[in-house]
């Protein structure tokens, strides 16, 4: 076991001991997770919940029914999530992708489990998702991990903040390099990736704040060998 793997697993154990197992994403279906992954771009999760509730109240949280909505109708429903016109187009692009893939797989377009996407190899599916306009690395990996139960380590601003403040990575490290920092040494384990990401989000929200971090009471304090780089 490399020193980096030991350290990253030690961070995980410390977070898990403090917070317990965290379920970052609760949803009724893989399709709901996927739509949530688009809606959460550049907004707080509480706003996403309002948009998801609107979609559920209108009973259109399945690919076929949502595809049949006009852009104006969909935009009105997801308005609480912000940037609703842009996100409407991104969701429509994703729905078009699902329609094409369901036709190829000869399955019902209204299926919300999206099981047919798992017929692709991981990297092939990731490339397909990234070709959808409006789907970037974080959104694609969120869909892979939380919707399709594939081992994709999700990187976000919280991850960069926590680990750069501990001087393990550069603050300006790019998405793929930071992802590789984890995946090069950690076991290829979907549950570990899911739990670890959820724990990073929690420690960043509770302790590793953007300004005035609460280092003295942070569960990762013992790993901090210097004043945090803020």
TrEMBL record:
- Keyword check for Iron-sulfur, yes or no: yes
CDD domains to which the protein is assigned, alphabetical? ENDO3c
Which keywords appear in this protein's UniProt record, sorted alphabetically?
Answer: 4Fe-4S, Iron, Iron-sulfur, Metal-binding
Picking any one GO molecular function of the record gives: catalytic activity
Q: Which residues form the HhH-GPD domain?
A: 39-206
Which Pfam families does its entry note?
Answer: HhH-GPD
Asked if the keyword Iron-sulfur belongs to this entry, the reply reads yes
| Any one of the GO BP annotations | base-excision repair
InterPro entries per UniProt: DNA_glycosylase (IPR011257), HhH-GPD_domain (IPR003265), HhH_base_excis_C (IPR023170)
This protein is called DNA-3-methyladenine glycosylase III
